[in-house]
Design brief:
The chain is an alpha+beta fold. The chain has one domain (about 5-145): Heat Shock Protein 90 (2-Layer Sandwich), CATH 3.30.565. Helices cover about 30% and strands about 25% of the residues. It contains 4 helices and 6 strands. The protein has helices spanning about 5-20, 40-50, 95-105, 115-125; strands spanning about 20-25, 30-35, 60-65, 70-75, 130-135, 140-145. The chain has a 4-stranded antiparallel β-sheet with strand order 3-4-6-5, covered by helices on one side. A two-stranded antiparallel sheet has the order 1-2. Strand 1 and strand 2 (about 30-35) form a beta hairpin. Helix 1 (about 5-20) packs antiparallel against helix 2 (about 40-50), helix 2 (about 40-50) runs antiparallel to helix 3 (about 95-105) and helix 2 runs antiparallel to helix 4. The longest helix has 15 residues, at about 5-20.
């Protein structure tokens, strides 16, 4: 069984293998531009790990990459009384021990700063804000990308 840090490293490798990278050359320097900001995706995955409902058995966190979006789904809706409108302003920790571990390993900030960071990173990439949904006992984060990225180089 993998620990959380090993799983996060594998997720990053999966992301790098399955998303596009565009290269731009300005004078003699090449700049690689990722299709999505990995920092925003990582934040959503870390939140899924930190806040999943472990009472829902047999359902893992899913991380799916499509041609126009990335979907991260975690068992369990938001912990009441938290609502989608509260995201980025308030937090309730369902799994305090896991949150503490993620904070000690610098994957998580306990102060409700992750959602604003996700929004900011997507805006910097000129992409829409992530969508947050509760759906039949699951929480979903969707990152959309309608831009057609020209692939000059892939990982």
């Amino acid at each position: 069984m993998k620990n959380i840090c090993e799983a996060l490293k594998e997720i990053e490798l999966f992301f790098n293998r399955n998303t596009k990278v565009k290269s731009e050359i300005n004078r003699f320097k090449r700049k690689n531009i990722d299709e999505y900001p990995y920092e925003a995706i990582k934040e959503a995955i870390v939140n899924a790990i930190a806040h999943r409902d472990h009472n829902i058995k047999g359902s893992p966190i899913s991380f799916l990459i499509f041609s126009d979006r990335i979907e991260i789904t975690s068992p369990g809706e938001l912990t009441p009384p938290l609502t989608i409108e509260d995201l980025g302003k308030r937090t309730i920790h369902r799994n305090t021990q896991i949150c503490r571990l993620l904070e000690r390993t610098n994957y998580l900030e306990i102060i409700s700063s992750g959602i604003p960071r996700m929004r900011e990173k997507m805006k910097k990439f000129d992409l829409p804000e992530p969508e947050f949904k509760e759906n039949n006992g699951f929480f979903e984060v969707i990152f959309r990308n309608s831009k057609k990225i020209m692939i000059n180089e892939s990982n």
